[in-house]
Amino acid sequence: MNTLLLPANEESIAQAARLMAQGEIVAIPTETVYGIAGSAFDGAAVKKIFEAKGRPQDNPLIVHVDSLARMEQVVQKITPRAEKLAKAFWPGPLSMILPRGPRLADEVCAGLDTVAVRMPSDPVAHRLVELSGLPFAAPSANRSGSPSPTTAQDVLADMDGRLPLILDGGACKVGVESTVINISGPQPVLLRPGYITQQQLAEALGEEVLLAGAITHKLKEGEIARSPGMKYKHYAPKANVVIVRGSFEQYAAYVEAHKAEGVFCLCFAGEPESLPVPCVTYGSENDPAAQAHDLFRALRELDEEGAKQVYARCPGQEGVALAVYNRLLRAAGFQVVEL
Ligand code: TXA
Ligand code: MG
C-alpha cells in the first residue's frame, strides 16, 4: 500500500473523513500523540488498526468524540461524574471509562463491557469527527511496543505502507498519551497518568481518586491489569534503558564509571556539557511538561543515533512528572538504579 503524507488542512481532513467512512484507517495528530483512526462503529476498520499496529487483540482502544451528543452514541449514559470531568477538562487530554453503548463495534472494547472516551482539543482530530460524523477509535500511531509518535515523520517511520494517509499537524503539544480514569466502578481509579493529574481530577470530582498500582510497579505474576495496556512492555527503544535515580552529581559519577562504546545519556537541558558520553535531552529538570513534550522524540532519537545502552535521569513522581516517570519506567523495562 502507498502511504500519503499530507499537511493537515480542510481538504486533506475531508479526504481522511471520506476514507474513514469507507472503512479505511488514517493517521492523525492529536494534542497528546499521533493516533491511527478508524470508525468506532466499523468492526472491520478497527481490525485494520490492530493489524497496522501489530497490537494484541485484548487491548481496547479509546474512542474520540467532538461533543457530548456524540458521546451519547458510544456510552450507556453520561453519568454525573462524566459531566463533571467533561466540564473541567474537555476538550483535552483526558479519557474516561464508562459502561459501553450497544452501537460500538465489539473490537473497540476488546470484549470488555466498558469503553474509554475522550474529546480531543486538537483541531484536526476534532474536525475529522465533525466532517465524517463518526466517533473514531484511535490508539497511538506507533508499532506496538515502540515509543508513541509525536510527529508525522515518526508515524511514517512506523507505518509506511500500512495505511493510506497520514495527516501532518506538526509536533504534538502534550507529548504523552491522555490521562485515563475509570469512573465505571464504585470509586474513580486513575489507570494511566497524563497531563491532567490525579489531584486535578480529585478536585473536579470532589472525591478521592485512587492510583492503579501498575502505574509505578511491575505487575506480579497472575496480577490482573485494570487497564490491559499496562501489562505490556511499552514505549521501548531498541537500546537498553536504565533509569538512574539520584542527584546530578551522583548520576554523572555513575555514567563516568560505566562509559563505553554505545553508551548514551538521556538527561536534562544544560547537563550534557558535564557528561562524558553522547547525550540526548528531554526537557529541563524542573519542567515536567517540557519533559513530557520531549520524551518520546528523545527515545526515538537515541535509536536514530545508534545508542546501545542508555542511562536516563529520573523524573519526579508528582503531578505531570508521574506521567513522564510512568512512560520512562516502561521504556526501561522497570530497570532503576538507586544511588
Ligand atoms: O492520548 C491518547 O489517549 C492517544 C491519542 C491517539 O488519543 N491514544 C492512546 O491510545 O493512547 P492507546 O490505545 O495507545 O492507549 C489506550 C489505553 C490502553 O492502555 C488501554 O488498555 C486503555 O487505554 N483502555 C482503553 N479502553 C479501556 C477500557 N475499557 N478499560 C480499561 N482500559 C482501557
Ligand atoms: Mg499506545
Low-confidence stretches: none
Distance between the termini: 50 Å
Strand line-up across the major sheet:
1-8-2-3-7-4-6-5-9-10-11
- Helix content estimate: 25-40%
Count of extended strands = 16
Q: Nearest-angstrom radius of gyration?
A: 20 Å
Proportion of residues in β-strands: 15-25%
Shape: globular
Q: Counting H and I runs of at least 4 residues, what is the number of helices?
A: 11
Q: What is the H-and-E element order?
A: EHEEHEHHEHEHEHEEEHEEHEEHEHE
Largest sheet, if any?
A: 11 strands, mixed
The distinct ligands, each listed once, are: threonylcarbamoyladenylate, magnesium ion
* Mean pLDDT reading: 95
Q: Pairing-aware structural class of the strands and helices?
A: alpha/beta
Which tags fit this structure?
339 residues; alpha/beta; 5-stranded parallel beta sheet; 19% strand; binds threonylcarbamoyladenylate; binds magnesium ion
